[in-house]
């Protein structure tokens, strides 16, 4: 589910940024530009949070896999003796 959220945040941010650039070129009102700029910042923040969460989950999974590997080897050698 997290990669889908990441893709969604990135797409929202990109589309809003493209629209923001077009709006500024057309002389859109300041309030509209500020709101759309906020959407870009919120989308970027969401994408960063998802990436950080994915990296944290990856680190936890790696640590758990290493721990399970150590425990497996320890128990394997207990049975061999």
Question: What secondary-structure arrangement, pairings included, does this model have?
Answer:
Elements: H1 2-26, H2 30-80
Question: What characteristics describe this protein?
Answer:
81 residues, mainly alpha, 2 helices, 0% strand
Describe the structure.
This protein is mainly alpha-helical and 81 residues long. The protein has helices at 2-26, 30-80. Helix 1 runs antiparallel to helix 2. The model has no long low-confidence stretch (mean pLDDT 90).
The major pleated sheet works out as:
none
Beta-strand content: under 5%
Q: Which class best fits the helix and strand makeup?
A: mainly alpha
Radius of gyration: 23 Å
Mean pLDDT: 90
Helix count, DSSP H or I runs of 4 or more residues: 2
Number of folding domains? 1
Shape: rod-shaped
Question: What's the gist of this structure?
Answer:
By secondary structure, the chain is mainly alpha-helical.
């Amino acid at each position: 589910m997290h990669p889908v959220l990441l893709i969604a945040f990135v797409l929202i941010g990109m589309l809003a940024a493209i629209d923001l650039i077009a709006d500024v070129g057309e002389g859109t009102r300041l309030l509209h530009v500020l709101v759309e700029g906020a959407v870009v910042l919120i989308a970027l923040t969401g994408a960063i949070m998802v990436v950080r969460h994915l990296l944290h989950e990856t680190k936890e999974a790696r640590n758990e896999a290493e721990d399970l590997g150590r425990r497996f080897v320890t128990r394997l050698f207990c049975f061999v003796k």
